Amino acid sequence: LSERRDVIIVASVSCIYSLGDPIDYRNMVISLRPGMEKSRDELVKKLVELQYERNDVSFTRNKFRVRGDVVEIFPAASNDSIIRVEFFGDEIDRISEINPLTGELKAILKHAAIYPASHYIVSGDKMKKALAEIDRELEERLAYFRENGKLLEAQRLEQRTRYDMEMLQEIG
């Protein structure tokens, strides 16, 4: 939907459930085309940023696997197709749509758009700003608790918040 111009989106569900920013989501889409300069490692790094999980054994939605110069992606929005990206050096050689059950070639693609694995995704810049703001607010609250002799509460708050911040940095 986000690749077309003739779409109207009603965002009531997003408002109720606080889904991520549609602009951020659209900006994080990976656009792939044959002949494009992109290394296999760049693609793998970008997939991880989009919350895809590398799993060479259990290949299901929101996962990808790597075999030599081939990266296979099971898109978040698909149940019946995987995207196979073949590289020649640091260039995309071919993009194919594959049946995940039979491995049968369904189509050769001129373009593939890989969307984030989750709607709850933010850009690296927004994450850094949010973490800085959380850290600033944490220091304020810790100072308050310490000034009022609530050392146990300060310790618990700091421990839990620092853990959550670390998880946000590592996992997203």
From TrEMBL:
Alphabetically list the UniProt keywords. Answer: ATP-binding, Nucleotide-binding
**UvrB interaction domain residues:** 30-120
Which BP terms in the Gene Ontology apply to this protein?
nucleotide-excision repair
Q: Keyword GTP-binding on this protein?
A: no
A single Gene Ontology MF term assigned here is: ATP hydrolysis activity
By its UniProt entry, which Gene3D superfamilies does this protein fall under? 6.10.140.240, Penicillin-binding protein 1b domain
Query: Residue span of the signal peptide, if any?
Result: none
Query: What GO CC terms are in its UniProt record?
Result: excinuclease repair complex
Q: What is the name listed in the Swiss-Prot or TrEMBL entry for this protein?
A: Excinuclease ABC subunit B
Q: Which organism is it from?
A: human gut metagenome
